[in-house]
Write the structure tokens for this entry.
Amino acid sequence: MPYTIDQDLFLIEEKERIKKYYNANKSKLVGFEDRQSFINWYMHELYFNENKCHYCETSILKIRELLNAGIINGRAVRGLGRRGPCLEIDKKDASGVYDYQNCVLSCYYCNNDKSNTFTYELYKNIIGEGRRLLWLKLLNQLRLNPPQPNIYPKTIPINEENKNVSELIEKIVKKYKLLKNKK
């Protein structure tokens, strides 16, 4: 199912998601007085930063466009959750607590990459800029070559007729070329 890229629907979804997030992570969010102060902080950050990751300064709605097009992938987490389509809470100082001063909203890709490997300053000032340029390049490719519905073959079933892997690959390539030439 595609992720919403409509600003208003996204904000409604996020407010509901972040309520659940707080309930599941209350014990680590000790720097926030209560659920409402956490939600207020999160929604303020979302609004103030125009839904952008603190590090790469890319809107999560743009990242969702890339996810929807299949250009990038998220990561499955327990239950039915996925990392990738939502901004996450990152601690600037990994050894610090989750509180107003130490937390920023980050896309999954920057949050996962920064982890506790890079300092806040290094990631924000150097690496985040590189990721921003990557997102811009991928978004430009998406604009120039939008995905066409149903032109890529999903799978060719493996059976007695096509159990040789190289034959299977050749069939997929041929089918793709035929479909592409029909455009």
About this structure: The mean pLDDT is 86. DSSP finds six helices and four strands in the chain. The longest helix spans residues 120-144. The CA atoms of residues 32 and 38 lie 6 Å apart.
